[in-house]
């Protein structure tokens, strides 16, 4: 494009020398340009209007409109350039960018693919296509695109991990080797890769492919990937249509993705009446719907089937607290740590109950957070909860140390930034508070914690 720019500069210099080109908008233009822009043409588009047969000038004008966010005008000039120049890979890329800016992703992808057919740079094209495949949940296309990307960038551990997750939703056994490789190399999300590889291997040994697919779906839900969890859980059900627990998790995935899920939960406990997990998931759903009576029934059934589950006890505690039964809620949270005294998760849940609801923070909240931290000294959640407890108790220096310790363990832990923002705001340091809240919002965009950060930013003067 450097030759094209040089040509444009020469043409502009000649026009200015002849007095035919003004330094501001002029009304004179060819008929085709008049159809592109209402009113006087901006200076960048004037050469294209004077020389309509010059496709390079039309192309350059289209780019100036694209950079200015005026996608409709850009499309008009790009189309004219294409008529003059024919198929050019970079021009089709620009056309795709203009369509994308205009909100027409179908046309955008068509032109980006056309650019590929015309010999465009694969990396540049994939950079555009991959985020669209991801946002549209076109998993097969995303997997193919990532495969081609990795062929160009074999050391991109982030892309390799994403491809391994996609593979795990279809063929868990084949994904395990790549997940183990990423874990051994400490690549992108190596800890999660290691966890999932272990989950897959154990599940395949214990229950076969359908069981492994269900465990993959459960893992994806746990790490905040409800949309990607759905194909894994559906694949498990395709192999075993009577797999009620997988259907319950599919209901949870659909619910988290904003889709109807009540029928999935209800059918799950019919298919698997002896599954405590199916009853737990259904009871949790009913609790979120405000149906306390039926939620209790389902959670009671789950507890009868598995009275050693801290997760069932915690969910029952949440239900009782939401129903205004504080004493009953505390009893169930106590059950959780009694049946699983070595479980970090049980202690974390109890700590979050007391600290999050500001109930006896200085006694039960801090004690529970310390128990969780004793079992997992490097867990940012435990460090952050303990910091929040000290913040509520008014010990801001100690709270700050805890928050920074959490972030030293996991630099992308959004709650740590949110709570540092709260602390800075309490000290009257609005600039620091704004910076921390913005970091939390960036890391947790679209999540409840991100909404908290957005609300906090909105209330700052």
The backbone outline, from C-alpha atoms, is globular
Q: Return the average pLDDT rounded to an integer.
A: 91
- In the predicted model, the low-confidence regions spanning at least 5 consecutive residues are 15-29
Strand content: under 5%
> Which structural class do you get from the secondary structure elements?
mainly alpha
Radius of gyration: 29 Å
CATH architecture of the domain at 2-120: Alpha Horseshoe
* CATH class placement of the domain at 2-120: Mainly Alpha
Termini, distance in Å?
47 Å
Largest sheet: none
What is CATH's topology name of the domain at 2-120?
Serine Threonine Protein Phosphatase 5, Tetratricopeptide repeat
The count of β-strands is 0
């Amino acid at each position: 494009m450097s030759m094209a720019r040089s040509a444009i500069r020469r043409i502009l210099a000649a026009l200015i020398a002849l007095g035919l080109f003004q330094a501001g908008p002029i009304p004179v233009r060819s008929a085709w340009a008049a159809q592109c822009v209402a009113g006087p043409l901006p200076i960048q588009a004037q050469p294209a209007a004077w020389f309509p047969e010059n496709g390079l000038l039309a192309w350059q004008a289209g780019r100036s409109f694209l950079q200015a966010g005026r996608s409709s005008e850009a499309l008009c000039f790009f189309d004219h350039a294409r008529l003059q120049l024919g198929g050019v890979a970079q021009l089709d890329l620009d056309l795709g960018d203009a369509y994308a800016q205009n909100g027409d992703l179908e046309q955008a992808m068509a032109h980006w693919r056309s650019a590929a057919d015309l010999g465009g740079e694969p990396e540049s094209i994939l950079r555009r296509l991959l985020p669209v495949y991801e946002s549209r949940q076109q998993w097969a296309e995303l997997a193919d695109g990532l495969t081609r990307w990795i062929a160009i960038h074999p050391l991109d551990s982030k892309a390799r991990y994403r491809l391994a997750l996609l593979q795990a939703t279809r063929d868990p056994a084949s994904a395990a080797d790549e997940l183990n490789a990423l874990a051994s190399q400490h690549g992108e999300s190596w800890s999660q890769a290691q966890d999932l590889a272990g989950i897959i291997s154990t599940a395949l040994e214990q229950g076969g492919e359908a069981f492994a697919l269900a465990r993959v779906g459960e893992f994806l839900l746990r790490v905040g990937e409800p949309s990607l969890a759905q194909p894994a859980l559906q694949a498990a059900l395709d192999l075993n249509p009577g797999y009620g627990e997988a259907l319950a998790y599919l209901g949870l995935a659909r619910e988290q993705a904003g889709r109807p899920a009540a029928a999935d939960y209800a059918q799950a406990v019919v298919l698997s009446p002896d599954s405590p997990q199916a009853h737990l998931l259904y009871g949790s759903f009913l609790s979120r719907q405000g149906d306390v009576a039926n939620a209790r029934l389902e959670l009671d059934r789950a507890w009868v089937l598995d009275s050693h589950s801290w997760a069932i006890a915690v969910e029952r505690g949440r239900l009782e607290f939401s129903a205004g039964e504080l004493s009953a809620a505390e009893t169930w949270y106590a059950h959780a740590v009694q049946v699983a005294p070595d479980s970090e998760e049980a202690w974390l849940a109890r700590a979050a109950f007391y600290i999050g609801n500001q109930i006896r923070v200085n006694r039960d909240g801090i004690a529970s957070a310390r128990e969780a931290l004793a079992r997992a000294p490097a867990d940012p959640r435990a460090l952050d909860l303990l910091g929040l407890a000290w913040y509520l108790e008014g010990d801001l220096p100690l709270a700050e140390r805890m928050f920074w310790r959490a972030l030293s363990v996991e630099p992308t832990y959004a709650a740590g930034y949110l709570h540092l923002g709260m602390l800075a705001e309490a000290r009257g340091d609005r600039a620091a508070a704004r910076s921390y809240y913005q970091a939390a919002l960036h890391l947790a965009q679209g999540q409840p914690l991100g909404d908290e950060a957005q609300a906090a930013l909105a209330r700052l003067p």
